[in-house]
Amino acid sequence: MTNGNGAARVFGVDIGGSGIKGAPVDLDRGDLAEERHKVLTPHPSTPEAVVDGVVEVAGHFGWSGRPVGVTFPGVVTDGTTRTAANVDKSWIGTDLAGLLGERLGAPVTVLNDADAAGVAEMTFGAGRGRQGTVIVLTLGTGIGSAVFTGGRLVPNTELGHLELDGHEAEKRASTKVREDHDLSWPDWAHRVQKYLAHVEMLFSPELFVIGGGVSRKAHKFLPLIEGIRAEIVPAQLQNNAGIVGAAMAAAAAADGAAAAAP
Ligand code: BGC
Predict the structure, then answer these.
(1) Domain identity same for 107 and 138
(2) Of the residues 34, 41, 123, 247, which has the fewest C-beta atoms closer than 10 A?
(3) 152 is in which domain, residue-wise?
(4) 121 lines ligand 1 (CB under 6 A)
(5) Same domain, 103 and 155
(6) Model confidence over 82-112: pLDDT tens digits?
(7) Domains of the chain: total
């Protein structure tokens, strides 16, 4: 998996509520090797329609026959999508790795979107070198979570669905909720603070990394959050964390397969 210059490259795709974005990733730098390509997420966002979108994104770069990593905004085990909080319900029980693998003629690794972003942040971003418990939270359409200890991920933690004030936390403190209800930054920061306090009570992390598009505006709300013991920092890879993490997961799977080969 090296290009002519010897740099390792793997293709990463981030399936989101609004867009399907992908690019070849330079795994040495933890960054996109080329400008990413995006197609709009189809509505309804059924597996067939989204798979077409991923194939189009890979096709834009002429990428075939080589490993691909893909994120999905729900629980993923063994390449199969198990939940669908913010996408079409027909995703539940879909063998996404199998479907895409057939279409792309390549090994496909699928993982949760927040897990992918977290893996990238832990290696190339805000969590680099941190060995204690680190929790990466993506505040977007929903709330995604990635929990690490000793640098290792506990996949599919789904902390966005914890209960907060009698509701699912992501229905109180996501970016979508802030936008839909036109909440002021202080009002929204107060909700995020309550949520962080709840997660801190359960896990006592040393660090929270706040990701999702809103991490670009961290200065507007992070300084308003008080009373949390853990350090709280914005994500560093921002929009590309999912793509980079997806590619990293695919590379790790390819290495694992090579090591297991007789
Ligand atoms: C899903 C998670 C996902 C998060 C962010 C939640 O609704 O259940 O799996 O990581 O949204 O997309």
Answers:
(1) no
(2) 34
(3) 126-236
(4) no
(5) no
(6) 999 989 999 999 999 999 999 999 999 999 9
(7) 2
| Residue 5 pLDDT | 45
The ligand 1 atom nearest the CA atom of 115: 10
Q: Is 16 in the pocket of ligand 1 (CB under 6 A)?
A: no
35 domain-assigned = yes
Q: What is the pLDDT of residue 7?
A: 59
pLDDT number for residue 262: 66
> Is there a domain that residue 121 lies in?
no
Is the pLDDT reported for residue 6 higher than 50? no
The pTM for the full model equals 0.96
Which CATH number goes with the domain that contains 47?
A: 3.30.420.40
Cβ of 83 below 6 Å from ligand 1: yes
By the 8 A CB rule, do 51 and 30 touch? no
Report how far ligand 1's centroid is from the alpha carbon of 161 (Å): 8
Q: How far is the CA of 115 from the centre of ligand 1 (A)?
A: 10
